[in-house]
Amino acid sequence: MPVNPPAEYYKAEMKYAQAKGREEKIAALEEMISLLPRHHGSENAHAQLKSRLAKLKKEGEKKGATKAGIQKEGDAQVCLLGYTNSGKSRLLAAITDAKPEIAPYEYTTVKPEIGMMDWKGVKIQIIEIPSTFQPAYVAIARTAELVVLVIKNGKEERMLQEMLADKFIRTRTITVNPREEPAQNAKERIWKALGRIVVYTKKTNTPMSLPKGATVRAAAKTIHKDFVENFRFARIGRKGMTKQVGLDYTLDDGDVIEIYA
Questions:
Q1: Which end of the chain has the smaller Cβ count within 10 Å, N or C?
Q2: pLDDT tens for residues 63-91?
């Protein structure tokens, strides 16, 4: 079966051929993939394009991290993105241990500022991206779990969403206006948007960050690799009640787990 791509596909293919940098190549490839028809005859073409895209992204992550000098730390990585004087530095200082320079003049932040946000014992890495939007810094948003759009008004939100779309960055976003929203509320929304829960071990009260819907099996693997193989049962403490459960039991935020192996 012939592939029969539309005319727009060939335009995207030309963009890819003429692209001068990795970001342009990634954007063109993602456009090509979105435009290529999906049927049995196009499976190989899709696979080749996706393989090429994955290779470019992997190279970009390594080089981007080196250029930006940022290593992922904590249980998740979140980027703060916004225009100058939007309140990014104030928000970073309010929700993390960072102490960025805060000044009334524009472009105070010239390199990424990093802080760790504590949520019930779980550590989240928060990175403030400079408003100069250098490609190497904006690329961090591609691999982050969440992008927080820090805005003063709706126009800024639209412009930031357009910028992310132009760069084919599809990371989940939420919007925060520091002038109208208390920092603690923003902190809670960031955690909820990450789609994770906190579970504690009974003996040490150590917090674990797990995806929503995670089971006892996932917690057991996180605690120790041998716990699943030698698992007998687990006891879950929830809202003052204790229950004996198996590996496939779904955990909830705030659960206390004790595994018997």
A1: N
A2: 555 445 578 889 999 999 999 989 999 99
pTM of the predicted structure, to 2 decimals: 0.72
| CA dist., res. 137 & res. 127, Å (int) | 10
Sequence letter at residue 93: A
3-state secondary structure of 172: coil
**106: exposed, middle or buried (Cβ count in 10 Å: 0-12, 13-18, 19+):** exposed
Cα 2 to its chain centre, rounded Å, is: 38
pLDDT digits (tens, 9 = 90+) for 221-250: 988 888 898 999 999 999 889 999 999 999
Per the listing, tokens 């009974």 go with 202
Cβ contacts of 102 within 8 Å, gap of 6 or more: 89, 90, 93, 108
Structural domains of the chain, with CATH:
7-67 (no CATH), 76-193 (3.40.50.300), 196-260 (3.10.20.30)
